[in-house]
Write a structure and sequence with these properties.
Blueprint: E1 2-6, H1 11-22, E2 26-31, E3 45-48, E4 66-69, H2 82-105, E5 112-118, E6 130-131, H3 141-151, E7 164-168, E8 170-172, H4 179-187, E9 200-201, E10 203-205, H5 206-218, E11 224-228, E12 234-235, H6 236-247, H7 257-264, H8 269-272, E13 276-277, H9 280-284, H10 294-302
Parallel strand pairs: 1-2, 1-4, 2-3, 4-5, 5-7, 6-13, 7-11, 8-10
Antiparallel strand pairs: 9-12
Helix pairs in contact: 1-5, 2-3, 6-10
Amino acid sequence: MRIIITGGTGLIGRELTSSLIKDDHEVIILSRSPSKAREIPAPAQVIEWDGLTATGWGETVDGADAIVNLAGSGIADARWSSARKKLIVDSRVHAGRAVMEAIEGSSTKPKVLIQSSAVGYYGAIDGDKVITDDGTPGSDYLAGVCFDWESSTSEAEKLGVRRPIIRTGIVLSNKGGAWPKIKLPFLLFAGGPLGSGKQWYPWIHIEDEVRAIRYLIEDESASGPFNLTAPNPVTNKEMAQSIGQVMGRPSFFPAPGFAIQAALGEMSTILLDGQRAVPKRLQELGFSFMYSDIDDAVRQLTGK
């Protein structure tokens, strides 16, 4: 297959590319930061783009089998100023519109467009309510980002392009993302719950994230929203306890919510809020997780 990945130099894009190349698929990466191409394994092709238009790459869509749209500025890369919040939204919406421009201009449409999103779509949810893929959108900032992100490519279906939407949880990987930051306090013997510790963390191991994306590319019946989260979400406190037990480190040093809010401002919602999201539709399709339980994932990530 010939697969185009926007935002392919990010954590998920790099791992997805490696997996596809091992199986001899042709991969084309679109990146606004081609300097990061050193991290992309050969023979993937890297094309620089502006994240705004189909100029310079749109022709690659003609006859492509799939597009995986992961593009967007990092949610947790910097404190949320007004300008940063606008960049987070605009980078996703503009990228989606550029993808649509390329699809509309192609004579042979791709078979499938994987549209990235996140469980933040459902908003910050208090309590133990289980959130499945048919949940309604929330009303906070991150929910709005996800809603606009998903909407940016909604017209693809009218062009006959199948469009699974991946609402990803907290991706656990030693190569970047949240896990190195989560693990660090435990390495320093200062691990513990954040805030109340009662907030649900819908996590997923990077290997399952990549396998799920590939599964949705290949399953011709897959369309619409899918929670890409492990079947067994845990609370923040439960995750801390698991990490502490597996690593043999204390897990009882709490980080007060007010201190996190003071340090991060509105961005603290990433750590202090959550959703008990489960992958109902993905499992109904027949997808099987390698890492269903947090203890197994932590053991693999720590080599314990």
